[in-house]
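Q&A log
Question type: sequence-to-structure
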Amino acid sequence: MGTSVHVKEAVLVTPFEPTPARVLTLSAIDSQLFLRFTIEYLLVYRPSTTGLDQGVTTARIKSALAKALVPYYPLAGRVRAKPDGSSLEVVCRAQGALFIEAISDRYTLSEFERAPKYVTHWRKLLSVYVADVLKGAPPLVVQLTWLKDGAAAVGVGINHCITDGIGSAEFLNSFAELATGKRGLTELKPQPVWDRHLLEPLHLRPPVNNSVSHPEFNRVPDLCGFMTRFSNERLAPTSITFDKRSLNELKTVANSTSRPSELLSYTSFEVLSAHVWRSWARALNLPSNQVLKILFSVNIRNRVKPSLPSGYYGNAFVLGCAQTTVKDLVEKGLGYASALVKKAKDKVDTEFVKSVVKSVSESRASPDSVGVLIVSQWSRLGLENVDFGLGRPCHVGPICCDRYCLLLPVFDQRDAVKAMVAVPTSGVDKYNYLVRSPYS
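Response status: OK
Response body:
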């Protein structure tokens, strides 16, 4: 079977105007070991109904990228470890971001109405995979692929050491507004802010409370060959949409299964992540005494005092962590699991953030993978608004569907969320059944 995507052009795009030549230090949060990878987005756009000129559109998007790299010039630099190995830095010499134009003779819009057939099924929609983000690769790769039916796919790879989900979504919306002419360079909102020193130990006074616990960094015993299973067994992608009615139903179930002392007002994120966690755990048939964790990012921009400035696009999150045994997670119901998630989220304050910064700076603390389900909320980043002049994307998701659960926006359904996660093949049918059964 021949390749489904053919690259027409791959070129380094440099900033439109001269930018500062300097070396910028990344924060302790940016430099964490577990962030040394590429965030990979896939945005798919419907075919134009007005006879879009593909050549003109490609040139316009490429030109907008060069303009966006002026205020966001670190994305045209290169990330490396500091000579003393203490943290990371960005060498800014306007080296450029990679822009790729491609065409597909196989993919059409309908391809993205369901989960991919296998984990890497859409890999070629971002042809460059960066295995080591510290080895001189461009921190930003953008691939525009014209699909067989006239639809378009924009694949984006962005170095997680430089930015987080919120920061990368702000960049993509600014990039898109430059492509449509909606805003000029001086009119971008928010204006990007570097200021990585704000999350450095020297800037944050030492934590007052040294007894803050960090279960996200603690290891739990592997009682069932957990890591071996995820390494050796084929993972099957799943994709389930929860509309407003389904989410309200989950909230009702969570409240009805909560203890009287824990009757709380749950958010959609809390009940959905708890529901996915329980369904996943039950589908995997793990030992009842295996300790499981759910990890999720908590935005700290407004949780630290003083709050971070608008436009701060560095990594500004810490990991919330709830943990319990398989037995309790399964038997105590959705209310119990939702309360665990809520409590883990609510404990994140300035002192907690200071403690994380101290831990990752001094001991290079990093989360383990045993018994862990990671949930990442892309549904509130604003990715669904990224319009390059092609309209709003009708599909927003990852390039590869992996063992991390992504909560995604749903086209034209503001209150709906799509949960996408790859599950070991032996448990995928049970997972699909359970996750669709709120009362089970």
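Response note: The chain has a mean pLDDT of 94.
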